[in-house]
């Protein structure tokens, strides 16, 4: 039996301590934002924070993190207001989107430890793979998030989750049909 904290909530997994954290999060906690990519710790799609440090959750067992604090993409911010999430949308980083949650978690950990990373530090710190090749946009988004964290203008690019289509449509006035000319 393993106990630690996930996204601020204490958890007690009644699973084999050798179970990879990835599967405990996805299968037992239904936190499916953490993706399974390669299972070898190479792609980074499964990146989460363990005690504030980015880890590939497919490579760390739940027994190894007893008493730790784990943050997944779901726990990074309740309303998508984290600077990295906002910059990701503003810089139009996602293409297929599969690697994005792990990439965002890696970028957030990088910025927590290096608030103003250079391009070389970004390249060294973000080893996640993006099959779509959005690396130039990823770098711009990380730089933009760094500016935001340093007191730059906030971005309101991503709406809070749960907006109903009717509510979104209500904000835009309906178009009237054109009046016939006489």
UniProtKB/TrEMBL annotation:
**What EC designation does it have?**
1.3.99.16
Region of interest called Disordered, as start-end residue ranges on this chain:
152-182
Q: Where is the composition biased (Low complexity)?
A: 164-174
Q: Where is the 2Fe-2S ferredoxin-type domain?
A: 1-76
Query: What enzyme category does the UniProt record give?
Result: oxidoreductase
Q: Under the GO molecular function aspect, what terms does this record hold?
A: isoquinoline 1-oxidoreductase activity
Is the keyword Methyltransferase assigned to this protein?
no
Q: Which UniProt keywords apply?
A: 2Fe-2S, Iron, Iron-sulfur, Metal-binding, Oxidoreductase
Q: Which Gene3D superfamilies does the entry mention?
A: 3.10.20.30, [2Fe-2S]-binding domain
Query: What name has this protein been given in UniProt?
Result: Isoquinoline 1-oxidoreductase alpha subunit
**Source species of the chain:** Sphingomonas vulcanisoli
